[in-house]
Fold these 2 entries.
Entry 1:
Amino acid sequence: MQWTLVVPLKPLARAKSRLSDTAGDGLRPGLALAFAQDTVAAALACRAVKGVVVVTDDALAGRELAALGAAVVADEPGGGLNAALAHAAAVARASGRAGAVAALNADLPALRPRELARVLEAAAEFPRAFLPDAAAIGTTLLTAAADRELLPSFGTDSRARHRASGAVELRLDGVDSVRQDVDTGEDLRVALALGVGPRTAAAAARLLIPEQ
């Protein structure tokens, strides 16, 4: 099965506020963009992915991610993350070519195409499925077969909410790069240890991140 991924990205100036203890105001927008670029590049290199649709109102991010090969749509509903994802999925399916869709976080800078392929192949067995994040509280990936609505419920405790919505929780080992989103300085340290993409590595080199 081939998937179309929808990736949400808020305006860079407001992105990654929880990284304030690690990155100052002048660095966080560039770091958020680097996360998204490495995430999208890895997703497009995945054999199970036929396209990526980024939903964002940030002009710079839109240009940079389009240059990598992603389609970019505006956040027309303006109703928050879940509305943006539902909108992007609808736009992708309106083309008649999207079929199965999956929502993927934009902050997976260590993402490995082979691990993403494993997760998507497992998800193909179910009408809707999701992968919990490394903290086992949130969600990094939500999938829906071609004949099902995505029904995203990202945000606080999204793991529990996606499970309650009927999506099947994927229990896979060896896919750490697909689970490791980055919200805090500790998250970034773990992602760096996994091995991040080149843009994140360059951006993170400007930060002082203590080893533990």
Entry 2:
Amino acid sequence: MSSSPTADPATIMARIAVWVIAFGFFFFMTSYALNRRDQIASYTTPKPESIATAVASPGFPPGGMPPQRVPSKPPPSEDLKFETPAEWKQTAGNQFSLKAFEVVDGSEKVDITVSLTGGELIANMNRWRGQVGLPEFKQEELAEALKPREVNGMSAMFIEMHSPESAPTKKSILGVLVPDGDRTWFIKLIGSTKLAEQERQRFEEFAKSLSW
């Protein structure tokens, strides 16, 4: 009875090498497949509302807010110079006013403010009209209502508005408007019609004294 031939060492080493290569290739492919699955699982698509916001706000920066206009120069503070009538009392004003004053005579009162802001002139003037109970201006009516003035060596415009005769309380606005780059200076007196007429000359002199 003959025994089976024994493989020589070179054949054994070749078989071991083949198994090592095959095992290594299998391990590499398995690791690659698992890694790809993790990458696909971690990918997320944008939320629908994010897409809707971008479409609804074309050209807007992140956050959906429209771009803001850059003013021609920063608003003045202590650089604003003027001559205040002795009869006027300085007040805190509001968040829009750079300077504010008031005149009180018994039950009559007017407030005077100086502010610097943007926006369409007719929109601002129609807001003033509403404050004294008047209907909105048409463009040609506004042009007729503006009277030429000069402030700080610049072309300015004077305007006045008075409550209708039927109004129970008579209220007036005197205003001087000075276009300055992309903004406008608004020098405004508002309050009792009687006191507004009394302060008219002082108001115009105050506006002329302004410089910045």
